[in-house]
Amino acid sequence: MGKRMTPAHIGLVSAVALAASIGLADRAQAADLGGNCCADLEERISELEATTVRKGNRKVSLTISGWVAEQVMWWDDGTESNVYVGGVGTTLASHFKLTGQASIAPGYQAGYVIQVETDTADPLLVNQNDDDANAGINLLQSYWFINSDRYGRLSLGQLSPASDNTAILVDGSGSLVPANWVLFDNQNFNLRINGQLTPGNWGDLAHCNFLAPGQGGLGVSGDCVGVPGNYVRYDSPTFAGFSVSADWGEDDIWDVAARYAGEFNGVKVAVAASYARSTDLRAFNNAIENVAVGYFQIGAFINHMPTGLFLYGAYGHENTDGPQAIVSTMDNSDTWYLKAGLRRKFNTLGHTVLYGEYGEKNDTLDCGMFGCDGTRNSFANGSKLKQWGLGIVQEIDAAAMSMFISYRHFEGEFDCSASCNDSTGNFGLHHEFDDFDLVKFGALINF
Asked: Which letter does DSSP use for residue 206 in this model?
């Protein structure tokens, strides 16, 4: 038999029970669940739990997901070197996402996505003089959608356009975050020539100037519509591995994309291609000009499952249309990238990924640094940025985690249409930048 309850015990239990019943009643009324004080207690508790953040309300679901990704990066620009701690770059950075949907009718759903990025020291923004630059807390996506199992999905709001990361996302090797063709790790680092930072009239050239020249800030080379924006987007259902997408928005940009994924006799294949076009009016030499910029990209991934061998490749091409006086100073650019390696499960932790990478960005230097807007007499009429690297990724299945270490090397050069003059002297027609090296170690954990 248990201990005999004293009057003090009885009083304490009664007080707790009374407080709990008052609290539950107040919460139920606040949640507008209806009923009266005599309703079944378990039913009330169940209804209250259905209104918490864990599940959404009784009609629309709510799921919280995301990841935390941070890294340590050592860099060397040929003259100076240092070690920074920070994130992995905006759009890949740590974030949380709220998603949910409700059934309208059999085969039809309505839903929403809200994605908030918590960007720490961003390698896209840091440089030799700033190790803390970051975008802070940023609303990356916020949109609603209506989906039909048969006819596809229509989405509206701040969202990722169809050509955002088209060529990148087919990479199924598990090494997408540490190794892709976008300059996530060193975009804002200033370039040097023979140990000296580039001359002042050149604006202290940085890796970010190796962009697709006509895009006007829409994205870095290789992913020229690389951030979410305000769009209306349509995505078709997947049929026999194929799907298509299209969108319009951002005064005025439109995109179309097609994707395929399948598996044949132990070989996985994924291919995606897109075309984006911006027809927004732009300012050149203090005049508003109608300049259209188009960007095509394609990516493909093949993985032989029995051996784990994989090959990934991507190609992008930009072209600019507009007044001849402007377009003649803008080289159409090409970007290509290859990655090959092995994805095998060597231990009980999870798959290990070993890879090597190589890529080039040709004629992508922002010629505005040298007068392509007509304000100076010379401009860049040819450029090349080469990159190669090696890396290892170890997946830890029990923690939904990936750890990586990688090395990357960059070499850049460009030509001027005439001698690139600066207030400090004449720097000639051809220039080679000092090599840039970096090593990074980090991890990404999903939730």
From this structure: B
Look at residue 111 in the predicted model and tell me its pLDDT: 97
Residue with structure tokens 């991890």?
Answer: 443
Count the neighbouring beta carbons within 10 Å of the beta carbon of residue 194. Answer: 10
* Start-end of H helices in 156-304: none
CA atoms within 13 A on the CB side of 201: 15
Please check whether residue 58 lies inside any domain of the structure: no
> Residue length, the chain?
447
Nearest Cα to Cα of residue 415 among 398, 432, 400, 403? 432
Taking only the tens place, the pLDDT of each residue in 59-71 is 899 999 999 999 9
Q: In this predicted model, what pLDDT tens digit does every residue of 58-108 receive, in sequence order?
A: 789 999 999 999 999 999 999 999 999 999 988 899 999 999 999 999 999
From 416, 403, 409, 412, select the one nearest 446 (Cα to Cα): 403
- pTM comes to 0.80
pLDDT digits (tens, 9 = 90+) for 327-368: 544 557 889 999 999 999 999 999 999 999 999 988 877 555
Beta bridge partners of 100: 112
Backbone torsions φ then ψ of 133, nearest 5 degrees: -55, 130
The beta strands (E) that lie in 345-400 are given as: 352-362, 380-396
Helix (H) or strand (E) holding 43: helix 41-50
Helices 7-30 and 41-50 cross at an angle (nearest 10°) of 50
- Does residue 88 share a domain with residue 41? no
Range of the domain at 12: 6-51
E strand or H helix at 196: strand 196-197
Can you tell me the distance from the alpha carbon of 42 to that of 40, in angstroms, rounded to the nearest whole number? 6
Phi, psi torsion values for 262, nearest 5 degrees: -165, 175
How far is 151 from 105, CA to CA, in rounded Å?
Answer: 14
- Report d(CA 384, CA 167) in Å as an integer: 21
Q: State the pLDDT at residue 293.
A: 82
Is residue 242 located within the same domain as residue 340?
yes
Residue 77 shares a structural domain with residue 40: no
Whether 56 is in a domain gets the answer no
Amino acid at 382: G
31 and 82 share a domain? no
Q: Please report which confidence band the pLDDT of residue 247 belongs to, taking 50, 70 and 90 as the band edges.
A: very high
Q: How far apart are CA 409 and CA 22, in angstroms?
A: 66
- Residue for token digits 């507008």? 32
Average pLDDT over residues 208-216: 57
